[in-house]
Amino acid sequence: MNRFQLPVEHTKLPNGLQVVVAPDANAPVVTVGVYYKIGFRLEPQGRSGFAHLFEHMMFQGSANAPKMQHIKLINSSGGTLNGSTHYDVTNYYEAVPSNALERVLWLEADRMRALKVDDENLRNQRDVVKEEVRVNVLNQPYGGFPWLDLPPVAFRNWANAHNFYGDFTDLDAASLADVQSFFKTYYVPNNAVLLILGDVKPEEGFALAKRHFADIPAGPAPKFADPAEPEQKEERRGDVLEKFGTLPAMAIGYTMPKRRTAEWHAMALLDQALHGGRAGRIHRDLVLEKQIAVEADGGIDDLFGYNGPTQMVTRILHKPEYSSAATLAAFDEVIREVQQKGIGSHELDQLKVKWRSDYYATLEGGAMPKYGLMHLLACFTLFDGEPQLVNSILEGFLAVTPQEIQSGAQKYLRNENRAIVFRKPEAAAPAGKQEAA
Amino acid sequence: MASRAAEVAVGVPALTPERSVTWPKRTKSRLTNGLEIVLVESHSIPKFHGELFFRSGNAAVAHRAPALADLTATVLRTGTAKRTSRQIEEDLRSLGADLGTSAGADTSAISFAGLSESAEPLLGLVNELAREASFPESEFERERRQKLEEVKLQRTQPGFLAGERLRKVLFGAHPYADVAPTPKQVAAYQRDDLLTIYRDFYTPENGLLLLVGDFDSAAMLAKIEKVFGAWSGKKPAAPQPAAPANPRGRGVYLVHLPGSVQTQILAGSHAITRKHPDWVKLGLTNSLYGGAFNSRLVMNIREDKGYTYSPRSGVSPLRQHGYFSVSAAVRNDVVAASLTEIFYEMDRLRSLPVPEAELADAQNYLSGVFSMGVATQDGLLSQLSTVALNELPDDYLETYRTKVRALTPDDLLQTARKYLDSPNLQIVVVGDRAQIESQAALFGDLEVFDAQGNKLSA
Question: Are residues B428 and B290 located together in one domain of the fold?
């Protein structure tokens, strides 16, 4: 089979900043990303939500680009920008017409060199973040379900178990001193990677990177807390009240192997067998065939980008006339089947074709060109030191055997390796009374 | 209004000369059965994306019940004369394909993406769904039951409730007024309704097939003729409902959602369709107002005042009538303050010419973002479908930037006065009545509803 390959070049500046260029002259558009190796998992204790609040502060002004200028300069160059905080990385990115490349690099370098923010900026963004939490979590049916509900039940290490969006008391306690100290500790060039993708020649990208970033001093290598979990010996369960929604819900999470192991490849394909849309076993069984659930979906979140304990999570909203116990029993039956019978080689072949096709789509990106390629290159550089993995990682998934899938199911999909959260509607409607004719 | 003087950046590198944007060549064709075809090559990844559109949607059957075309599209994928629901899903997976079926107000669509190496079998499956769907009774019953839970769940979502109410207020007796069925209407859905819609809407004369991706256009056209050539069917008569009355004066509509810890604001007014000659002007005016991160409204109520996370404005171009709207989810105690700023920024654009520098920034933004579509298969597909479905001129993509850059401060002033219709803006607020009613009532005559749509006494 003809493998699709992308040109990727990689260098490291003397200050430790890694630079990756992936040229593609098809369209006059360039995507720039800066990834820092710090996410909400390892934010300081007593400061839940701080990594994300800090991400907002990175748009509030740097030495030569005061508040509002960063956004204005990108938009007025014809581009879009954003940032996002993940478990183990935080990213900042822009997609612009390629004639704005140097301007974008100047802006990213300016804020990597010196953040310049004040108390008013912090108060302002604290308010904005609280409205973000309200619109996404506190004022939405099933808000934060299950990504905020499951970790405190599943994990014992604070790093993995805390509220990643932040308790409001912790957000209120965050000070300007915290902002500067977080910046100094983690936002050093030797803890980051710069990515330039699209309409740029590698030598031009490297020269521009050197011109704008080379004089940013390296800092001490950040010390990271150990996110390891003590061994889990029992199934864990918890309950969360659902304030708005009408349907009972549950989420089941199984802790996954370390990334880039043979088991990881197998679990990724098993995840597709279970959660791959309408053909996935869980949706097919619970929604289409048994018709217990209204929604049943899930997966391993950010497969390539996690660097600590992570789960494969199934999220189920079920009809009120079925009890939680009956719903869980139906789910367990799906799991038991893959443990006892594995999956056939025909099904595995289908999964591999779909996997390859999805991988190409990830590389291309959607509304933001090359977003997926950027994310993969960044994670492969920061965690593995090997951006070229983007061209070879697929092989590991395509080599998975039915036996590996069955052993993975037996080893990882055990009750003693899982946590379950039940999200129960506050105003429980009378079950099954107002049935459609 | 920003409370601080705007500071400027120092030492910003200039933009280098612009590389021209080349939109790829379109291959247009029409099969003898009437099916319109648009093909565009884009070799970024070894895949292709497609949409098979039909120019009829929920609005055309609104007299029967809301969202019926949408349920038709949902059940469409659950069986054909040759394949069961499960076979369809597994065949898609074995082709490495994704497929979605849906209907909006004006169109029904089968959307798909797959590997170039399997283009022909995927087109074959799309063809089968468009021509030989069997609407199995059991699948219909399941999807109807699903829909019932969905419509109950929707009524707990502030964003849905706001949108639903605004459409009712703006469109009255017009089919665009009803975006979702009631549980009772869902219970009354009949499989026969779906069969009728399928027979009438899903015909080659009513269809448009768009494909973008890694293929050779001539070879692809031959495949398409082979797969879709034998299909036949007439274009359905399109109902022409009377134009909705344009509400005069400000009205305020509060949807009471007890226990809300935030208020969803959504305000809007009648505007224009995509084909209207003012479309580009309104696009630019909107981008200055609240359509971009750097827009006046976002800078004001987010970056200056911190009232909200995600304020935005936009123009929704339905086929017969477009509307302009502005939204923000805000803290309960700043509902009146947020509305005041929403009107302030609108009135400022209606009263004072935009400074040349700000205009130039917005022009660069809009033309840059427009051209971003050229970089991905999906982006191209979206731009091409806009052109084809709205019957815009062939050179629309090529001339858009020039049109944007030709606009003047006076054009924008006139456009804002026409379409950012602040004196007649209809305001919807969704939240806890006890916390927001007195604030909302300051802005016009107030009507109050519960989440089920029942009117409550004021």
Answer: yes
Q: What is the pLDDT of residue A365?
A: 86
Walk me through the domains of chain A, giving residue ranges and CATH numbers.
9-213 (3.30.830.10), 236-425 (3.30.830.10)
Binary contact (B96, A356; C-beta < 8 A): yes
pLDDT of residue A428: 57
Number of structural domains (chain B) is 2
Contact B8 A141 (CB under 8 A): no
Q: Are A365 and A373 in contact (CB under 8 A)?
A: yes
Render pLDDT for A382-416 as a digit per residue (tens, 0 to 9).
999 999 999 999 999 999 999 999 999 999 999 99
How many whole angstroms separate alpha carbon B421 and alpha carbon B323?
11
* pLDDT tens per residue, range B406-447: 999 999 999 999 999 999 999 999 999 999 999 999 999 999
Expressed as residue numbers, the domain containing B218 is 26-228
Q: Which of B:190-229 have CB within 8 Å of A?
A: none
